[in-house]
Recover the amino acids of this structure.
């Protein structure tokens, strides 16, 4: 074999080998769930969402509506197996396999105390390495932090606002406590209304929270506690058969989503009794891992009603316009202007696997995207009020440090205060979120494509050159 033929053969073999590797690796890691890296992208990247608002001068009411194939009414549970009680429903990337994550709707409210929120919404709360991110802060790191772990008792990195850090790109670089207190006094926090389909919703309450140096509950106690007796490794409470007709839920009904909304599917003083260890428990008997109770203090400010029907959730959250808790809540005043942002969890998802909105302006007697209707009496006349329609989108792992860095082509616009909605649609933001999720895999695939392209170029060039030389010869 002549030397030129050998070189041409080697080039062809190298090209075919690289092309084969490209073919085999094609789409590996692209749009494929990867639990080890906390990646699980929903099939549907956007969903429709509706909201309307009304007030009577003393109370303000928000009503929300969104589609859901089925209601998820149970959060996490304790299931009897082989003489032991096993926990099901731990958080996972994407949808929980047994469907054990409650449906939720949340709303963040600002009155101008966080200027960036009116332009970029919840993105300003997404700091670096938050819980659920591919490179998120580990539980051990959070617990070892001198402030968040030792003082606050946190075991995860949660949302935070940029000015609460000496370096906004560093979750752990928290400001001194006196500075945090100054920021709170100045109104630098977001009010967070959080309706949960299991933890509080069934007894008529939403969770009243806020976002400052972290996502936290208002002062007081929440609407739930844990149904676990650690000393005896068993539940504390069970259903009262006298009041409900049963001592436990059926596992199959939970898996199939056939638990009735109107049944006693949650543990509460009106439906439970102390756990009976001598009862003839059977494999599959299931008890809620949460016990519902009346919330207290500022955390009990938001009343709520929710119902799933014909493929849609409709949830109403109501609160006094002035709660008397200005360090926990944004106070609504007639003539006031506010910004709100919304989020929905459905399909048994938790953590960051939700749909969110861009910020929307809210006005009480002021021009705004979302006007607040005034009514007299105790209950809003919802039937006479139109819905305001919004598209919610899956945000992916897009953080505020990323958006404000040189890695983001629009960082200059953010620096100059240009609102996100002027140059991005929800559909675009959803696609960008997916690109960020799979950035490593996309770059890897691009490199393989580049290598194959170069080898193809060399092979074709060499072949053409030899052909020209042969013709001249």
């Amino acid at each position: 074999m002549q030397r030129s033929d050998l070189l041409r053969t080697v080039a062809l073999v190298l090209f075919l080998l690289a092309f084969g590797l490209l073919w085999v690796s094609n789409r590996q890691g692209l749009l494929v769930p990867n639990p080890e890296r906390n990646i699980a992208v929903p099939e549907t990247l956007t969903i429709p969402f509706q909201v309307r608002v009304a007030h009577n001068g003393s109370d303000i009411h928000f009503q929300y509506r969104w589609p859901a194939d089925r209601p998820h009414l149970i959060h996490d549970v304790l299931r009897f197996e082989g003489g032991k009680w096993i926990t099901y429903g731990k958080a996972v990337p994407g949808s929980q396999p047994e469907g054990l994550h409650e449906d939720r709707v949340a709303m963040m409210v600002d009155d101008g105390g966080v200027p960036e929120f009116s332009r970029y919404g919840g993105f300003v709360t997404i700091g670096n390495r938050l819980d659920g991110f591919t490179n998120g802060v580990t539980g051990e790191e959070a617990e070892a932090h001198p402030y968040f772990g030792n003082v606050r008792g946190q075991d995860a990195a949660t949302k935070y606002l940029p000015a609460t850090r000496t370096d906004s790109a560093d979750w752990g670089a928290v400001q001194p406590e006196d500075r945090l207190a100054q920021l709170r006094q100045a109104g630098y926090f977001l009010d967070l209304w959080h309706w949960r389909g299991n933890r509080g919703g069934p007894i008529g309450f939403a969770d009243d929270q806020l976002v400052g140096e972290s996502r936290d509950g208002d002062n007081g106690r929440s609407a739930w506690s844990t149904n676990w007796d650690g000393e005896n490794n068993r539940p504390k409470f069970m259903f009262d058969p006298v009041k409900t007709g049963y001592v436990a839920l059926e596992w199959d009904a939970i898996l199939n989503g056939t638990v009735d909304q109107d049944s006693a599917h949650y543990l509460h003083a009106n439906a439970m009794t102390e756990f009976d260890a001598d009862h003839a428990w059977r494999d599959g008997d299931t008890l809620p891992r949460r016990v519902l109770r009346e919330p207290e203090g500022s955390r009990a400010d938001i009343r709520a009603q929710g119902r799933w029907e014909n493929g849609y959730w409709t949830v109403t959250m109501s609160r006094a316009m002035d709660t008397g808790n200005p360090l926990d809540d944004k106070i609504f005043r007639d003539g006031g202007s506010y910004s709100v942002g919304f989020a929905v969890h459905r399909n048994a998802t938790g953590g960051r696997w939700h749909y969110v909105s861009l910020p929307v302006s809210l006005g009480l007697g002021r021009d705004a995207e979302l006007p607040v209707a005034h009514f007299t009496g105790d209950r809003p006349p919802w039937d006479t009020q139109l819905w305001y329609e919004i598209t919610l989108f899956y945000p992916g792992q897009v953080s505020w440090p990323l958006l404000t860095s040189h890695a983001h082509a629009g960082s200059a616009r953010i620096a100059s205060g240009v609102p996100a909605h002027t140059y991005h649609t929800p559909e675009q933001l959803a696609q960008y979120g997916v690109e960020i999720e799979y950035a490593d895999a996309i770059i890897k695939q691009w490199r393989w494509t580049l290598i194959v392209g170069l080898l193809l170029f060399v092979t074709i060039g060499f072949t053409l050159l030899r052909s020209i030389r042969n013709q001249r010869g």
